[in-house]
Design the sequence.
């Protein structure tokens, strides 16, 4: 149960606020294993709803789920040169099995390109076997030194899509399509707006031709890389001999893509929507959408109110919000807590709507509905409460996205900016800065060393400025492209 | 794609038949990692349907999902004496992380009692926090020397339920309840009948007070332990200091249960229902329930038939079988295969119903429906095909369970049996033998050494013989309980 102490505010210490919300809303807990966390039922419930929705979207775009081994022979990682350089330093290694030293150590998968494309090579013979569109829901391990609940942990849960195509252009289209699916999910379900675009060479996935990313702004104005999609080119196909016979009868290497999102999204949800009272969960992802808090003083009232509350819950659960979904309702019938304490607890846990029901409400055939996002209260007739609650939840879903987008835009800087001003912003309140870039890795690296800000993406067209800066933020030479700079998680 | 060679028959070599069906129906494949398999989309699709159904049943009985770390400190395993003895010899051990030797090696979870009850100890303070009803969907690793696809692999996927209760009796009730859920699932969805009962002391889970099991008979008359449920007593609570304040204000150790089923169930499904043509999937678990095979000779016919087949598929998908489920239909429109070859392939893959549609069928407004379980064909009017197909699928689901139960009963022996005859049976065709047992571990061990048969369970009342044997199968002393003997996977 949540304790009564007030949360640190976001303004006082955003990072402390985040940890307190995650722990006290019981989304997750520290575990006895360094850097590994436990995802508690309230956090896992959000992840389950994310999974379900993403899985439906993957299937609607033709993908099928499969499962590949947790362990990868160490020699596999080494087959793609950039890949091993990127991942080998952060692996966990199994050296003993069944009490014996293994001949070849096994790496706990940090990502599964190598083992998956080794299998694809076995399954794909002809152009008729392409495209091969596979997704895996799995745990992966990366040996991080500094960990944060949900945002960066040694082990995390994710999905990784892996596909093989006959041509470069089909692979590019697939990588782009899945980036779009991620964006639709993040905006439509998480109410978390993102900027999409391409990563620079220095930030792309180890072994990829091109990496695309969805970048979201957290309430401390830092960026969260929320999901990435890679056109892997033929790098892994060549490393694992993934060839096929073309329609013309030739032999060719396949083109691959991979794409993933993880439990990090739960952290992104907290940092996008939480406030100083705690969590706010967008209705579509909330395991509980409505909590009923019955109010009574006398024992007589208690019986009457609880009875009415149970009936109300039953009628709401039956209310068909959007086929085939029903309203998800919890009745908080605990008799060892005052209503006020319950309000605080459910606010901390982020349930979108609170429904207060007392003896006088019952007499008047009404109840009080309180929105978690705005705190606005309204009286609603018990006759139309399903309709009203459904409408409110849909409205909340939209207005949470709008509010997050407005906040992001208010904290974005576009057009000409001096490097001094840029440094000042990055050292201070932070921002998404759309600035000119000459395209040199040197300028990119110097700015990063100097300010800790990085190019999050070269934004896709719709995110670019109407009047972009004409000079490179760092060297002042003519800008060849607009780059989105921010500090990041 | 499945190749054309005939399957080894079950009679020729059951074990070879099993491997061929799993590989050629593309349920799974061998991986480059010793003892680890890849679950391919057709196998994973069955597992996903199993998961969805079990998950609904767990939630309906009050359980919530959570996720605990993959890695367990080696010292944790050692805290419960029987547990470490049972599991330590078969663990995979991570000794290096991020390029460095770890201070304490980490075990890849073989099961999660230790890490989960360590967390429960942190979360549970009062009787008000009980019962705590948690489930986890996860991968686990046990270093097996002899592996078989789905049945015994180094890594497998499973769910593990873990609960804490205030009293012994509540824990016992929970362990029993979940055994019942497993049975309902296995019989109601897998069409796989099981015998339930208690394990003997020598076969119970390492660290448990009592283990209950569901035992199914495969077509080679061997038993498959399909799911187990354990009353763990206070063994883990004492090892991990999982205490709570009782309503009376005292301090007491909690009582735990754990229960699990795994991807092994997919193997059980194959060995329960497969035939010499391949797999037969019970309709409720079939990713595809109906495959439409269009038939044409001329190009004109092809256009007409494919057009009609697409319309038929659309109308079937819209057919509401049982709310909110729709018929799951695949149209095999490949133009590089003859219908006969398609029939064989879909029989191999086990799709419950085949729908053949040719030009003359369209003229007559009809189609041919073929049941995979019996091979029976029937003409059906296109006007009522959704209704007919739905009814057939329900009938198949029931008749597959009946057929499997009849087969089991035909291969079960009850009442007095001499030890010589018992040995003969176990060396020959095998059976479920309900025999008398004096209760001594010595008789149990000697029979096992002698015949490789083990006591699968001490059967629950409804499975016991009306006239049980009165003497112990081995020593001839008076029987104190009836035991179910079989060789097992």
Sequence:
């Amino acid at each position: 149960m949540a304790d009564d102490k007030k949360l640190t505010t976001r303004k006082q210490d955003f990072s402390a606020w985040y940890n307190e919300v995650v722990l006290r809303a019981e989304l997750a807990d520290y575990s006895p294993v360094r850097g590994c966390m436990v995802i508690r039922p309230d956090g896992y419930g959000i992840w389950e709803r994310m999974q379900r929705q993403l899985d439906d979207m993957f299937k609607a775009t033709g993908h099928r789920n499969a499962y590949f081994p947790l362990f990868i022979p160490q020699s596999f990682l080494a087959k793609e040169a950039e890949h091993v350089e990127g991942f080998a330093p952060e692996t966990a290694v199994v050296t003993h099995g069944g009490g014996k030293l293994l001949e070849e150590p096994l790496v706990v998968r940090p990502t599964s390109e190598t083992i998956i494309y080794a299998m694809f090579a076995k399954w794909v013979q002809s152009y008729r076997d392409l495209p091969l569109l596979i997704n895996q829901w799995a745990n992966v391990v990366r040996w991080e030194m500094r960990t944060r609940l949900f945002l960066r942990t040694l082990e995390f849960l994710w999905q990784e899509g892996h596909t093989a195509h006959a041509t470069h252009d089909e692979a590019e289209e697939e990588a782009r399509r899945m980036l779009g699916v991620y964006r639709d999910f993040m905006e439509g379900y998480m109410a978390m707006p993102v900027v999409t675009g391409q990563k620079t060479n220095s930030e792309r996935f180890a072994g990829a031709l091109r990496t695309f990313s969805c970048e979201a702004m957290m309430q401390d104005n830092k960026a969260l890389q929320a999901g990435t999609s890679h056109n892997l080119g033929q790098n892994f196909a060549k490393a694992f001999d993934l060839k096929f016979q073309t329609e013309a009868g030739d032999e060719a290497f396949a083109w691959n893509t991979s794409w993933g999102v993880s439990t990090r999204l739960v952290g992104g949800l907290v940092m996008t929507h939480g406030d100083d009272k705690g969590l706010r969960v967008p209705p579509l992802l909330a395991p509980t959408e409505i909590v009923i808090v019955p109010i009574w003083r006398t024992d007589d009232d208690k019986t009457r109110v609880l009875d009415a509350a149970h009936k109300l819950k039953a009628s709401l659960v039956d209310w068909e919000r959007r086929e085939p979904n029903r309203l998800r309702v919890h009745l908080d019938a605990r008799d060892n807590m005052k209503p006020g304490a319950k309000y605080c607890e459910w606010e901390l846990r982020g349930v979108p709507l609170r429904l207060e029901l007392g003896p006088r409400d019952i007499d008047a055939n009404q109840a009080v509905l309180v929105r978690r996002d705005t705190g606005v209260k309204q009286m609603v007739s018990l006759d139309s409460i399903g309709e009203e609650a459904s409408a409110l939840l849909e409205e909340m879903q939209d207005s949470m996205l709008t509010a997050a987008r407005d906040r992001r835009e208010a904290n974005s800087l576009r057009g000409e900016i001096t490097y001094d001003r840029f440094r000042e912003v990055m050292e201070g309140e932070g921002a998404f800065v759309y600035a000119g870039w000459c395209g040199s890795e040197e300028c990119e690296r110097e700015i990063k060393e100097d300010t800790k800000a990085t190019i999050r993406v070269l934004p896709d067209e719709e995110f670019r400025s109407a009047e972009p800066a004409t000079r490179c933020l760092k060297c002042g030479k003519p800008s060849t492209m607009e780059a989105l700079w921010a500090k990041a998680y």
Summary: The longest strand of chain A covers residues 155-165. Residues 295 and 358 of chain A are 5 Å apart (CA to CA). The first helix of chain A runs from residue 14 to 24. Residues 14-273 of chain A form a domain with the BirA Bifunctional Protein; domain 2 fold (CATH 3.30.930.10).
